[in-house]
Design a protein that fits this description.
It comes from Noviherbaspirillum denitrificans. The protein is α/β, with parallel strands linked by helices. The chain is 37% helix and 24% strand. The protein binds adenosine-5'-triphosphate. Adenosine-5'-triphosphate (ATP) is lined by residues 16, 18, 23, 25, 43, 45-51, 212.
Length: 264
């Protein structure tokens, strides 16, 4: 059965008025993400990926076009966002950080505890539940952010380069942890990355954006078998071909974006 659309964006545009005049960040972006789908957004630096995610998150408004988000289960939050920088509360323990959204929603303490312990176990942080963020490494703090986002149980997860600041091995482990949790929960995910590898490890579809003003250039189905491992996926059938295709689409836009920067 085909799942219904959860995120539907039609001819969406965004203009910023800055000190140097008008900046068109997004133009005519149209895309649809089905419920339970994992989509990665890739595109050159400055093409509007974060702006698009922030618009979906309701943190920014669009200046033209339409955005429709389907909210299937009103007892759950619609979306949660995970940022590149660690966005944990430094004054709260790991456990308090993860339960924050649930507490805000008035979920009873016993239920909160079960959910929090479940996700701390999933991200390998059970032993650190009473630790404070300053006692954790960067990768561990990102794990707290991921556990918090899933514990909050939103329908849509919006992830803005959540692993960009991590070293290669920690990134691979977190990608696998994220995939395992996603496979269990099947949330709708919109995930920004600069990495072709990361898009191929994680996504069902890679959405390639053009240089600014960003619009959708290519929508590439990532048909690699699941479950996937962060390294073994690279030797799976079709990986090389997909990787080359994505790079061809992206390369042109990265060059365009460089010539824009040179002309500015
Ligand atoms: N608040 C703002 N005011 C003015 N211009 C902005 C604002 N936010 C973003 N922009 C501009 O909009 C464009 C898109 O920015 P955005 O951060 O969305 O790109 P991005 O694709 O996420 O970049 P990166 O990959 O480098 O993170 C850029 O030219 C940026 O300078």
């Amino acid at each position: 059965m085909t799942e219904p659309a959860q995120i539907h964006i039609s001819k969406l545009g965004k203009e910023f008025i800055g000190t140097n005049g008008k900046v068109t960040a997004l133009r005519d972006v149209s895309l649809s993400v089905r419920r339970g789908e994992f989509c990665c957004l890739v595109g050159p630096s400055g093409c509007g990926k974060t702006t698009l995610l922030r618009i979906v998150a309701g943190l920014e408004t669009h200046t033209s076009g339409e955005l429709h988000l389907a909210h299937f289960d009103r007892s759950k939050p619609l979306h949660s966002m995970v940022f590149q920088e660690q966005s944990v509360f430094p004054w709260m323990t790991v456990e308090r950080n993860v339960e924050y959204g649930l507490k805000m929603r008035g979920v009873p303490a016993a239920e909160r505890r079960d959910v929090v312990l479940h996700y701390l176990d999933k991200v390998g942080l059970s032993a650190f539940r009473n630790a404070y963020p300053h006692q954790l490494s960067g990768g561990m703090k990102q794990r707290v952010s991921i556990a918090r986002a899933f514990a909050n149980d939103p329908e849509i997860l919006l992830m803005d380069e959540p692993f960009a600041a991590l070293d290669e091995q920690n990134k691979a482990i977190l990608q696998e942890e994220l995939l395992r949790i996603w496979e269990e929960s099947k949330k709708t995910v919109l995930f920004i990355t600069h990495s072709i590898d990361e898009a191929l490890v994680l996504s069902d579809r890679a959405l390639v954006m053009t240089a600014r003003p960003g619009t959708l250039k290519a929508d590439i189905p990532v048909t690699l078998a699941r479950p996937r491992g962060a390294y073994d996926v690279r030797s799976s059938e079709g990986y090389g071909e997909l990787s080359t295709r994505l790079w061809r689409e992206l390369r042109e836009e990265v060059l365009n974006s460089r010539s824009q920067a040179g002309a500015a």
